[in-house]
Amino acid sequence: MSTPVFDVRDLSKVYRMGEVEIRALQHITLSLHEKQFVVLLGPSGSGKSTLLNILGGLDVPTSGRVMYRNTELTAADEAGLTAFRRRHVGFVFQFYNLIPSLTARENVALVTEIADEPMTPDEALGLVNLQGRSSHFPAQLSGGEQQRVAIARAIAKRPSVLLCDEPTGALDISTGIVVLEALAGVNAELGTTTVVITHNAAIAAMADHVIRLADGQITAIEERTDKRSPRELSW
Description:
Blueprint: E1 6-17, E2 20-32, E3 37-41, H1 48-55, E4 63-68, E5 71-72, H2 78-88, E6 89-92, H3 104-112, H4 121-127, H5 143-155, E7 161-165, H6 173-190, E8 193-198, E9 209-214, E10 217-223
Parallel strand pairs: 3-8, 3-9, 6-7, 7-8
Antiparallel strand pairs: 1-2, 1-4, 4-5, 9-10
Helix pairs in contact: 3-4, 3-5, 4-5, 5-6
């Protein structure tokens, strides 16, 4: 198999609060490859967000190694991590973080103005089927539409990695399906390695790989050959 997009070896993260130690991650080892749609599945407090933040260069581990292709992220300084995030990673969070005074197109343009080889804002909005809403402000959009604008903003710089933290957590089922369809479409059309955090086991059915976590440890890694579309999930 080709060089992994991410190669993680013996990764641990410990938070210290006075004399108390919280072991958020314990000895995580995994590899993620190009074009994969990966679901990190586990209950609250299992370490999913901590792992995602380390992969995205937003946090650093206490011990262990993270390689992004041939670059060791765990050896990078803050400037190096900032450059990594800017060039290679798109983030989608549960809350949309759109600027209320800017239109959908303008919110996406914030990213295209600092990227090396971005798509146009209208191209990015087209990939999430929001061509007709580009001039609308966030208050004029539904929750699902706002999340799709956030996805368009994340993919506009053509990232090789898309990291999504509970992207449907604030949405109802029907709206969540539309958002998951947008993520699946981006994964298929752009070949972006996509990692989605969720505690909803139904979403795992649309993944190539499912990584189950509990108490900061991987309990199972499952390779799926029977991927389902978001509308086929058993909610």
